[in-house]
TrEMBL record:
Boundaries of every AMP-binding enzyme C-terminal domain copy: 19-97
Keyword set, alphabetical order: ATP-binding, Ligase, Nucleotide-binding
Domain of life: Bacteria
Keyword Nucleotide-binding: yes
Species in which this protein is naturally found: Paracoccus cavernae
Protein name listed in UniProt: AMP-binding enzyme C-terminal domain-containing protein
Family from the record: Belongs to the ATP-dependent AMP-binding enzyme family.
Entry-linked PANTHER family: ACYL-COA SYNTHETASE MEDIUM CHAIN FAMILY MEMBER 3 (PTHR43605:SF10), ACYL-COENZYME A SYNTHETASE (PTHR43605)
């Protein structure tokens, strides 16, 4: 179970970032991911994923669309990440937990 402040509220739906991350990890190109909600004027928050790719994959618009389609197939359509950022590392605590607060502070960059 995650912290209540990690839940994403988008278009009235409450979305667990951990559920989206688990789905992302099922995709063959995804090595690791972190999901947060970022402010959105229409939806309240928008599901945003930061993804580390498996060696041999490169981030592209086509891969973003492929991953989004994959998530829509595996979970409810409102849960898929509408924004995806490919990164080489994720901010973590000493114990290895993802520091979502740092990702939120980046504001989608």
């Amino acid at each position: 179970m995650g912290r209540a402040d990690d839940l994403i509220t988008s278009s009235g739906y409450r979305i667990s970032p951990f559920e989206v991350e688990s789905t992302l990890l099922e995709h063959e190109a995804v090595a690791e991911s972190a999901v947060i909600g970022l402010p959105d004027p229409e939806r309240g928050e928008v599901v945003t994923a930061y993804i580390i790719l498996i060696k041999g994959y490169e981030g592209s618009d086509d891969l973003v669309k492929e991953i989004q389609a994959f998530c829509r197939e595996k979970t409810a359509p409102y849960k898929y990440p509408r924004r995806i950022h490919f990164v080489t590392e994720l901010p973590k605590t000493i114990s290895g937990k993802i520091r979502r607060v740092e990702l939120r502070a980046k504001g989608g960059q």
